[in-house]
Amino acid sequence: MIELVSAQRCIACDKCIKVCPTNVFDRGPDGVPVVARHDDCQTCFQCEANCPVDALFVAPYTHPVPDNTTAHDADALAETGLLGSYRERIGWGRGRTPGSRSAIGPALDPAGANVITS
């Protein structure tokens, strides 16, 4: 479930608003998206995956995490490496490569038909 939009990192590009399949976000008065319909979040990670500056954190749970966790603290999430970790894992973002090929599936041969084992 979407847990954090970091106002310090956000560049107000609206990509998260555009890709959200359940219209969870509204644009805030300062241009930074706000989670307006938290219960509608399907935990699809599209907002986090498409954020070019790693300003979003989606917790892999279908219910909101308790307020006393680091999921609501941008500095703690950045310090622990969680902020932006999903995009890094899937290899999205300038200069990134997938952190773990097994996280996105096995490697395929150039024809795309057979799994390559090493």
Count the strands? 4
How many domains is the backbone divided into? Answer: 1
Question: Regions with pLDDT < 50 over 5+ consecutive residues?
Answer: 100-106
Provide mean pLDDT, rounded.
80
Indicate the CATH topology.
Answer: Alpha-Beta Plaits
Relative strand content: 5-15%
Q: Specify Rg, calculated over alpha carbons.
A: 16 Å
Helix and strand run: EHEEHEHHH
* Broad CATH class: Alpha Beta
Shape: globular
Fraction of residues in helix? 10-25%
Could you say what the CATH architecture is? Answer: 2-Layer Sandwich
Oligomer: single chain
Distance between the termini: 36 Å
Largest sheet, strands/sense/barrel: 2 strands, antiparallel
Count of helices? Answer: 5
- The neighbouring-strand order within the major sheet is 1-4
- Structural class computed from helices and strand pairing: alpha+beta
Domain 4Fe-4S ferredoxin-type: 1-30, 31-61
Organism: Saccharopolyspora taberi
Keywords: 4Fe-4S, Iron, Iron-sulfur, Metal-binding
Pfam families: Fer4_7 (PF12838)
Which features characterize this protein?
single chain, Alpha-Beta Plaits, 118 residues, 4 strands, 5 helices, 23% helix, alpha+beta
